[in-house]
Amino acid sequence: MNVEMALQRLKDRGYKFTDKREKLVSIFAQEKRYLSAKEVLERMQEDFPNLSFDTIYRNLSLFEELGILEETELKGEKQFRLACSGEEHHHHLICTRCGTTKKISLCPMNAVLGSPEGFYITGHKFEIYGFCENCYE
Description:
3-stranded antiparallel beta sheet; alpha+beta; 2 domains; 3-stranded mixed beta sheet
């Protein structure tokens, strides 16, 4: 996912394109890591000093619902990152200190569960947490 794709998805789903929403997506495109709502608010307030936490959180939730952002929980709070764009099925290694991610193509689902009888799997999420090489001490 990139900024243009994200904004087009908003438009296609009937949501307004605003400079605040463009800035929000641009922050994630620049960072390429998980960010908390607080971090996003701090970055957004540089350009929009009167922006509220509620507005940020509402837009983060909307973007996650539309598949523009992915969500996980780190350090006891929700964190968001720009969704991967239409790539093949994969999962992530996530640094719990800085929030960077690394794609892994291996899917443990088949080894763990296979195809369960009487149940059709429509999706799943698998994340491995640890430290990236820059954060590991």
